[in-house]
Amino acid sequence: MPFVTVPELKAQLNLDHDLDDALLSHQIDAAEAHVASFIGAPLTDPLPAAIRQAVLMLAAYWYETRETAQAGGAPFAVPFGVHDILQPHRVWVV
């Protein structure tokens, strides 16, 4: 079960249609998997606000930037700030 909902992501993106709900759901799943992998721990319920924000930012970015190459600028796999937000939640293994 996703921790972030499609309506939350639609609000983040300011979308008012249902045409891309399946794609948005996929972006949420991928973003949650990336965040869990980056912090080194499974996501928990309730999701901390900072982690929720990182998932929303990442899913929205991947929805808006669907290609690996982009004209006029360097493409990024993860938008600026996502890893900074997640850094305090990382589990460090030594």
Automatic annotation (TrEMBL):
Domain of life: Bacteria
InterPro entries on file: Phage_gp6-like_head-tail, Phage_HK97_gp6-like
Protein name: Phage gp6-like head-tail connector protein
Species, as recorded: Rhodobacter capsulatus (strain ATCC BAA-309 / NBRC 16581 / SB1003)
